Amino acid sequence: MRFLLPALAVFAVFAAVALAGWISRWPVSWRAPMLVGLMLAVTAHALFVARSLETFRLADQLRRVEQVANAISHTAPANAVIVAGEQSGSMRYYTGRSILRWEAATADTLPRAFETLLKAERPIYIVLDAWEIELFREKFPDIGPAELDWPPMLEAGSSHRTLAWNLADRLRFQIGQRINTIRIP
Fold first, then answer.
1. Are 117 and 124 in contact (CB under 8 A)?
2. In this structure, are 47 and 63 located in the same domain?
3. Is 53 exposed, middle or buried (0-12, 13-18, 19+ CB in 10 A)?
4. Are residues 64 and 154 in the same domain?
């Protein structure tokens, strides 16, 4: 899609030529008011569409990713590995930690990766957007940590949510310790 963006400039030139031809047929006294009215109508429509798509809330929606990354940066050691999907690029950028993309793993490779990382004493964090959780569980049904059967360490966002789990918390939770989830709106 991004390769088609330069075509928008060409389209704008053709649209301007067509609009100029259309306006030239109007009486001179109507041209300025009609052009202002047309611009207001187009602007009003664009604002309506932007609001309906929640464009003006996008910064708030994306802030949650930075908040999760900052929390991990402050709590996770430098050798930690983050298992992520949708937010893998953001987590790498904001935390500087190694990333394991869960979509690229298989039911055979993910347990081996967890085992290798734990043997090397590398902490594992799992960061998923709320819509990814069920997909993650379905892809790895027989892998204990993929059940996400313990509370997340962090949950951020309101309309769009991102959650983070510390794999070390799973064992603590299984032996009865309480795991407190930090919620950031």
1. yes
2. no
3. exposed
4. yes
- Number of separate domains in the chain: 2
Amino acid at position 30, single letter? W
Helix (H) or strand (E) segment spanning residue 162: strand 162-166
At 77-106, the pLDDT tens digits run: 999 999 999 999 999 999 999 999 999 999
For 139, the domain range is 58-184
Report which of 74, 80, 78, 122 is spatially closest to residue 99, judged by C-alpha positions.
80
Strand partners, 40: none
Whether 48 and 62 share a structural domain: no
Q: Quick check: 142 pLDDT over 80?
A: yes
Among 26-35, 51-60, 174-183, which is the least confidently predicted range? 51-60
Distance CA 97, CA 68 (A): 13
- Greatest Cα pair distance, the chain, in angstroms, is 83
User: What does the DSSP 8-state code read for residue 180?
Assistant: P
